[in-house]
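User: Can you model how magnesium ion sits in this protein?
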Amino acid sequence: MSAASATTTLSVVIPMYNEEAALPALVARLRPALDGTQVSYEVVAVDDGSADRTAELLEEIRLTWPELRIVKLRRNSGHQAALTAGLHSSVGAYVASIDADLQDPPEKIPEMLDLARAQHLDIVYGVRSDRSTDTGFKRWTAGAYYWLMRRMVGKRVPSQAGDFRLLSRDAVEALKALPDQQQVYRLLVPWLGFPSGQVSYFREERVAGETKYPLSKMVRLAVDSITNFSAAPLRIATWLGIASFFGCFGMLAATLGIYIAGHTVPGWTSLFVAMLFLGGIQLICVGLLGEYIGRIYTAVQKRPTFFIGYDSAKQEQASSVGVRG
Ligand code: UDP
Ligand code: MG
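Assistant: Here's the modeled complex, given as structure tokens:
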């Protein structure tokens, strides 16, 4: 019997990329926490194209834990795409998402569920009360990121909420219906503006393994976040244009003055500086335009952000009616 059915109360989505080292510790804490809730649940482990033994370990664990469901992506598609795959596969009336590395405590999930049910909330954010275990650099970049996001999306973005949260089925369906290609859930969820609550927690250190978010992925998340929610960078071009227009008036007056005084040769420096400056501004503006055009291009292409290679729940369904997938 598959654990996933229409009566499932809670789905827990966990994106995993090369998490073989963290997996045993995760199961040891997550399973008792969920079994203790007395509700029917499924754990949707999304294997984001791991190259290590994550998939094999999951299969082993599933033998003794029928509530564990494995959704395997055909290639590494990134954290947010793995989350999308998990949300799309989940069937629960509530869907929690949590990282695999135990930086977010699984014991808080039942608390989130209770809060959502008691107060009829659609969203319960896990908010980090303390990030002292993160490196100074991570804290600083995260601080800058949330400051910018609050200015763009509005005050609804909790300043220290990552991807540890609980959503109601209605919220999940609303997210699934959005046409966005590069989803950034930590912004899309607050943007929904559904009734929400918070549960605060202490962010622990990664239990095992290394961060799967190198600087390049962090920069990509930040660029996606900005371009998904704001056209403000495009306006930089306008402001720079206006500023250089007035700047040029000053230079025109100076140049004419020098010409009238009969010293035309010394103007070379200012000419060269202005040329370099304007050339630089133009390249920046063309680059910014390119960012947005690139996104329009991807949106028009409508390519899927992930491919599901295998879903243990579907496999079970198929074998129970005699069809081999
Ligand atoms: N992750 C993923 N695909 C990726 C990168 C990360 O599914 O391409 C998962 C990872 O396994 C973890 C979560 O996303 O469960 C958050 O990653 P990580 O803990 O490395 O990020 P950090 O906490 O360092 O920001
Ligand atoms: Mg982590």
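A couple of observations from the model: DSSP finds eleven helices and eight strands in the chain. The CA atoms of residues 5 and 197 lie 27 Å apart.
User: Helpful, thanks.
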